[in-house]
């Protein structure tokens, strides 16, 4: 199986209905481990929340990425999931900043 790439979005059912999650871990990690780290995508507006990244017109979904809502997904879960496309480079850049805020990085 090909490793999931950073910025790709997948639909998963984590026990509360199917929801989209975006891969946020780096591609070297994704290739060498059997898991990825992912952030949840929500359709609920989150204005003024610095860890919420609004999706733009160039992205495959409508909503926001919650950079402070992270989970670990296993390769077999990804293989069984439904792909939803990839983030635009502009959104990935915003996500990088939001992840730094969420993790308390400079």
UniProtKB/TrEMBL annotation:
Single annotated GO MF: hydrolase activity
Gene3D superfamilies (UniProt xref): 2.30.30.110
Superkingdom of origin: Bacteria
InterPro entries given in the database record: PemK-like, Plasmid_toxin/cell-grow_inhib
Uppermost EC category: hydrolase
EC number(s) reported in the record: 3.1.-.-
SUPFAM superfamilies linked: Cell growth inhibitor/plasmid maintenance toxic component
Keywords: Hydrolase, Plasmid, Toxin-antitoxin system
Family: Belongs to the PemK/MazF family.
Name of the protein in question: Type II toxin-antitoxin system PemK/MazF family toxin
Naturally occurring in which organism (per UniProt): Rhodococcus erythropolis
């Amino acid at each position: 199986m090909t490793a999931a790439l950073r910025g790709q979005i997948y639909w998963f059912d984590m026990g509360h209905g199917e929801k989209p999650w975006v891969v946020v871990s780096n591609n070297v990690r994704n290739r060498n481990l059997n898991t990825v780290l992912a952030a949840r995508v929500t359709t609920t507006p989150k204005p003024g929340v610095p860890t919420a990244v609004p999706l733009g017109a160039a992205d495959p979904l409508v909503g926001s990425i919650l950079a402070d809502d992270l989970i670990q997904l296993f390769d077999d879960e990804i293989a069984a999931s439904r792909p939803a496309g990839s983030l635009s480079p502009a959104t990935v850049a915003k996500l990088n900043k939001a992840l730094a805020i969420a993790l308390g990085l400079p």
